[in-house]
Structure formats: C-alpha cells, structure tokens
Write a structure and sequence with these properties.
- With about 325 residues, the protein is mostly helical.
- The chain has 13 helices and two strands.
- A two-stranded antiparallel sheet has the order 1-2.
- Helix 3 packs parallel to helix 11, helix 9 (about 200-215) packs antiparallel against helix 11 (about 240-265) and helix 11 crosses helix 12 (about 280-300).
- It starts with a helix and ends with a helix.
Length: about 325
C-alpha cells in the first residue's frame, strides 16, 4: 500500500469515527440535558423508554424520521432545503481541525487524533463557525414567515456582535503559544495547571465562555428560539429530519465550543499535575465538565432582554477583551509571560 493510499485510508477511518462519535454524543446530550434539567427542577425527565430513559433519543429519532415533511406554500424552496444542509455541514467541518488527544503510534506510524492538522487551525474554526449563521438566516428567510425571519435576523445580529469578542479572546492565547495551531496551544499548557491559559488568561477565558455561549444561542442568549415571542423562531416551519438537522447542528456547535474551551484554556488532554501521561481520557472528562456547565446555565439563568444582550457584548466584553490583549502584549514584550 502506497503512502498516499495509507493516508486516504487513515483519514477516511478518522472521519467515520469522528462522525459516529459526534452523532452519539449529540444523542446523549439531548438525553443528558433533559435529565439534568429535570433534576435541577425537581422533575423526572425521560424515564420510560429504556433504562433511565436512555433510549429516548432513539425514539425521538424514529419519530422525526417518520413524521411528515412539508414546505410552506410561499417558501423559497431551494433556500428552504439548503438551510439545514449549510448549518450541519459547517458545524461538522469546524470540528475537523480540532485535536482530541496526543499523537498515537499505531503499526509503526504516527497518527494524530484529528482529521486535519492546519497551521491556521484556529482561523479555520472561526471561519466555519461564522458561516454557520447563514444556515439560520436562510432558514428564517426562506420560510416566508415573519416570526421565523425575526428569529433568524436576531441570531445574525447576535453572532456578528459576539464574534468580535470571541475571536479577540483567542489573541492572548495565540501570543503565549506563538502559534495558530491548536495542538501547539495545548502543548504550551503541558506543565501543570498553573500553565493553563485559564490561569494565565482569566479575562480571555471568561470572555470566550460568555461569547461562545451567545454564539451558539444558548440560554441566557437564546433569542433565536424565544418560544413565547417567536413561536420557536427560525425553525418554526421545519419538521421531520430537516428540523432534526438544525437541532443536530446546534448541538454539534455546542460540542465544538466545549472542545475548544478545553484545548485553548484547560490544558487539552494534559492532566492538571505534571508527571501524569497525557491521555484522551482527561480531554473527555474536561469536555464533559464544560458541557455540564452549559446545561447548568440553562436551568439557572433567565433569558436576557435584547438590549441587555447588545450592551453586554459591546460595552462590557469588548472593552474587557481589548484590555486583556493590551496587558498580555505588554507582559509578553517584557518577558514576564
């Protein structure tokens, strides 16, 4: 087998494994979120379908697969069909450059635990997540429903406002690692938790978490799906598997937020104390903690008003992250960091 064929086989296997893991994690998150929120609100949550309700995602998938699909009479058919595809493709593509563990040696060959290792990996992720807004906006516009359109426009304004703070929160991390490659940023945090960027860049970490939560439209920033105002927002007119694709894209984006938070600020696959071997296990545990916090916020905080959303993004987060960049640049220039 030639090296080119070997690379194609390995890449194909990694794509298949990652795709399967994301589908499985998406299904598990829908169950875990419902169970955790029920626990926080003194309810039971799914508990009838399978042990502890674990088969509820399977039942939901079967229901959505066999439900009737319809297109509103006045809808723009091509855009209506294209919107869920754009949303899911950009969501899965963004994860392609994210590493999940140290490089492994299999059959005498070094195999990195990521599909593609790009020198500008962070910029690629930023580009793909930015393109994801087009799926939501098109879904709202193509349905020719005023409530759907309002939900799509709300989310586009929200993402444009918070993308600036989100991208700027990475600048300090990039300066410390001197690289845009995610694996290099993780390796720069390898010598104990006091070298993690959440310790060295607390303002950047806080800004990232808030901006990323707004970017994926999660509570308290879920204005695109404000049910009491918009009748479920941009996906009001979607049903069956098209609705499922939009929901899947949302959860995959949440997972992307979690894995980036771990890689950029929480040491990636490294254990908090030096001397313990790096492992994908530590990475999975950290991602689980981040996703738990995101779910916890939904069960704790009320939704902001839209003026509060914009004020937080432009008047609070942007000045904070600008201050963080200035201070970090000064400390790096002085050799302190």
């Amino acid at each position: 087998m030639t090296p080119l064929v070997e690379d194609l086989v390995i890449t194909s296997v990694k794509i298949g494994v990652l795709f399967g893991l994301l589908l499985g994690l998406f299904s598990f998150m829908t169950w875990a979120e419902r169970r955790l929120l029920a626990l926080m609100q003194f309810r039971l949550g799914p508990n009838r379908t399978g042990p502890f309700g674990l088969l509820q995602p399977v039942a939901d998938g079967i229901k959505l697969f066999f439900k009737e699909e319809f297109i509103p009479e006045r809808a723009h058919t091509f855009l209506f069909l294209a919107a869920p595809v754009i949303a899911i493709v950009t969501a899965f593509t963004a994860v392609a450059v994210v590493p999940y563990g140290p490089t492994l040696e299999l059959f005498g060959r070094k195999v990195p635990l990521q599909i593609a290792s790009l020198d500008v990996g962070l910029l690629f992720v930023f580009a793909m997540t930015s393109l994801g807004v087009y799926g939501v906006v098109l879904a709202g516009y193509a349905a020719q429903n005023h409530y759907s359109l309002l939900g799509g426009m709300r989310l586009s304004a929200q993402m444009f406002s918070y993308e600036l703070s989100l991208g700027m929160s990475w600048v300090g991390v990039i300066m410390l690692a001197q690289s845009l490659q995610i694996a290099d940023i993780v390796d720069a945090q390898a010598n104990g938790f006091w070298h993690w960027n959440v310790v060295l860049q607390p303002l950047g970490a806080l800004t990232y978490f808030i901006a990323a939560t707004a970017e994926v439209s999660r509570t308290p920033f879920d204005f695109a799906e404000a049910e009491q105002e918009l009748v479920a927002g941009f996906h009001t007119e979607y049903s069956s598997m098209r609705f499922a694709l939009l929901q899947m894209a949302e959860y995959v984006n949440i997972i992307t937020v979690g894995v980036l938070a771990v890689n950029l600020f929480l040491g990636g696959w490294h254990f908090p104390l030096p001397g313990v071997a790096a492992s994908p296990l530590w990475f999975v545990l950290k991602v689980g903690c981040v996703l738990f916090v995101i779910i916890w916020l939904r069960g704790t905080l009320p939704r902001f008003r839209y003026d509060q959303l914009m004020a937080l993004g432009w008047k609070v987060l942007l000045p904070l992250v600008t201050l963080n960049i200035i201070v970090t640049a000064a400390l790096v220039a002085l050799g302190v960091l």
